[in-house]
Amino acid sequence: MENEINIVIAENSFLFRQALREFLERYSPFRILADVSNGRELMSLLNSTKPDIILLDISMPVMTGMEALIQITHNHPSIKCVMLTIYDDYSIIEEALQNGAKGFLMKEKSIDDLVYTVQRVHETGFYLESTLVEKILINRPNKLGTTPKSRIALLSDRENEIFELICKGLNDKEIAMVLHISPHTVHSHRSSIFAKTQTHSTSQLLLYAFNNAPK
Length: 215
Hints:
alpha/beta, Arc Repressor Mutant, subunit A, 2 domains, six-stranded parallel β-sheet, 50% helix, 14% strand
């Protein structure tokens, strides 16, 4: 099927892995190509199977999800990895983004949240759930402070607003609706933000927030 989203599940827990497969197979246009229990099995599988998206457990034996992510980003750059974890530790999120992750989801979230994340990653190339973005942009200890708004100094007030909405995964039309401005205006601000921060993607913007927000 032309619009299928081909998925591989890499998850240590057999029960959780099978539950994911069972639930996701109910959703069109998802197609589960395979499921594996560790990073080594995953890398072997990728010699013959090319999914669009990998749901990648961070805490796997033999080869961890983070170790596998590094190899996938280097050897299979067209494959998008969504990291699954029980930890919302900032250093883990940062490391995953640095290593090429395109999404990050807590295992406690609902199947609807997972479906939405997979769809957004497939459509836009990156998605991080808003609660994690809020923690990154606002509450990260010793990095972004504890104030209600953590600003990026070189951006204007409007650019800071759009910066946060981009990091939350909103597209130009969605941002325009939130801020009651035109999509063309949003696109112009987006271009300015990328130029000023010397970034080219949402994941790079989040990394910029990690490294450059007020301390």
